[in-house]
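Weekly sync notes, structure subgroup
Attendees: PM, AL, DS (notes)

Item 1: joint prediction request from the bench team. They want all two components modeled as one assembly rather than separately. Inputs as received:
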Amino acid sequence: MNSLSLEKSQPTRVERTLCDDVSAAEPGSVVRVQGWVHRRRALSAVTFVVVRDRSGLAQVVVRPDDGQDVPPEETTVEVVGTATANPQAPGGVELTAPTITALTEPAATPPVELWRPSLNAALPTMLDHAPVTWRHPARRAAWEIAAASVRGFRSTLDAAGFTEVQTPKFVASATESGANVFEVDYFGRPAYLAQSPQFYKQQLVGVFERVYEVGPVFRAEPHDTVRHLAEYVSLDVELGFVRDHRDVLGLLRDVVAGMAGGITEHAAGAVERLGIEVPRVPDRIPVIHFADALALVGAPPEEPDLAPEHERALGEWALREHGSDFLAVEGYPMAKRPFYTHPQPDDPRWSNSFDLLFRGLELVTGGQRLHRPSDYVAAIAAQGEDPAAYASYLQAFEHGMPPHGGFAIGLERWTARITGAANVREVALFPRDLHRLTP
Amino acid sequence: MNSLSLEKSQPTRVERTLCDDVSAAEPGSVVRVQGWVHRRRALSAVTFVVVRDRSGLAQVVVRPDDGQDVPPEETTVEVVGTATANPQAPGGVELTAPTITALTEPAATPPVELWRPSLNAALPTMLDHAPVTWRHPARRAAWEIAAASVRGFRSTLDAAGFTEVQTPKFVASATESGANVFEVDYFGRPAYLAQSPQFYKQQLVGVFERVYEVGPVFRAEPHDTVRHLAEYVSLDVELGFVRDHRDVLGLLRDVVAGMAGGITEHAAGAVERLGIEVPRVPDRIPVIHFADALALVGAPPEEPDLAPEHERALGEWALREHGSDFLAVEGYPMAKRPFYTHPQPDDPRWSNSFDLLFRGLELVTGGQRLHRPSDYVAAIAAQGEDPAAYASYLQAFEHGMPPHGGFAIGLERWTARITGAANVREVALFPRDLHRLTP
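Output from the run, pasted for the record:
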């Protein structure tokens, strides 16, 4: 972990020890830690200093005859001290007889007390001071879980022959992106910000067969809700040569299991700090048809969508009947799905698409797409649009595309569900919404 | 590679074989491939069909009594045939007595002949038809190298305790982004697209110490050159607790070596198809000071920057004197660096920043940043701006930041240099520039 050239280039000093590794230091040895003054607690005869770095916390004991000033909390410091066993210290080892060097000017008092076990601040305070409030170990844990999830997402797909792609965020027409698009002044003419890489990931299935992208998408959401952001991170997947949406769902199962596995493997400390349970993904996700789902929850058969209370009831049913936190609902009415959705072959009122529910909340939407050029022309015309407006997208289909499908996972929504955050704003590093554009 | 649930759900059919694996098929066995008709060549007694999939090419032989129609080139097909040894076939095995099933309508004739060994098309043709021209194996190789480089970038940093972050692309003020920013209509008020994650990655060093981001950045470049795009992929790194820019350069060395290693490990086929050489990264990158570099190339000592011909001469010198494709130039004049740049402690005319040259071309810019809040206030005031305009950025420094630094690598520029592409547009999947907004 520290075998980089940058560490090797510092041979003359005692090597830095991460706070979490202080517990393993040889008693009596000289240890150097670097980090933030997490907590400074002056008692009559001694001052306890807790130093925080990216790994965790370490305790430093300062006695009057050490002749050391302890800078205010959040100041960055280097501490060189003697590792000393103390059963009361975190990890059983603390640093004594320290030399403390401040690495910057004394820090201003943080807007919230970061050393308290939990961060009890109102959401606007948390967000206004994001660069500081993210330092709280419990808050930081949420992002560690997000990052570990993305790592698991990629490693699952890399192992399955997928190619990572990067598609443009500037698009030429609002048509490509649907409603609620942001308009940009693009060298004096209008352009739009992509609401999703949908069209591009499909075109790239024509090149690489299997593609994924992790990147920002932009939605001018006029709704001020706990689950909408103007900008969020979309984990997009698309693959060719599928039989139908069930193959896509099979892949989604593996990807979700990979994301959960990423958390377990790379963010175990964060899981512990938050006291959450990483979801267990069944080998096969139970599937119910949309029509059966309506019947199950007692909704009228002509309902075009599932209401939140329906989704909750379905989640309870999946847990009760299948012991699963996950449930896929397939066959959503074509009328409610975008034009590129593949219909259900035996009954075109329904679609070869699905939603994945996690504990009764919608987590992922996906499905099979159309792949025959004539189907696209008909579908675009059927919604009253001119296929010529889609010419650059349609060339991929005219020149041969396989049956394909895919899905998109909203990172913030995923992280909120896993961590139990009530609002997606809590798990975006610097959220953007109707009202917020800073920090 | 094919052990996913999605593959397991297809037990009743002969499992799909990737084209590259046909050579390993048991002669006489029944093999199923899926892909595009890459080449259809009808001779008097036989038609040769080359099928292309994500792995490579496989040959299918169709005889009149097979009773098979061969759809036009680029049509997607499934072919079930008998593996038959033939020393003349690619890989020594071809499929005979095939059943060919078209998976879509007959494909339109491609704008360029994709089956030719090299793609001889003018750049505008290549770009106008990107969804199709990327299918050419040699062209696709460039992106495979890009994707493998990113994979090596991440794995190097993941192993060194870095956290991947995702920072906002909407920013509140043009100040944060400098000149050439794109303006967006953000719910009726102006916002701007981030030109770099610089401010955010620094703030996040205060949280995670070591961060990286792979994502789009936006520059309203009015210049129509072979190395500027309006949107490109930036590989951004920032880390805390450095001594100075030399620690940053040490990390950059490891990251560049990791990217080269990613290519060797994950894109060997692409390297072979392009006939290129993956650069060898020396254990230590030679470093020359800016002032010495000027003297070496015979430029006046008051020059504020290196001209392209100077960089070329320095590249030749590094190869001749150090046997290195890479050379770092450190100490660029403070006057030419952004305000957050850390000065050289013993002579503040110079900076603790560097450019990394690769074969005489600038590839990466990086360095140490200021970390004391009072230094920021002074630096912002010195360029005639009000520090209050930077309030949300500055709170990270007021609340304690470590000495830190970082760098940014432009993915398209990197890929162009590695593959020898003359224009960055050739290696962006769907480039965006002054004139181009589609496909």
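Discussion: The longest strand of chain B covers residues 30-42.
Action: AL to compare against the crosslinking data before next sync.
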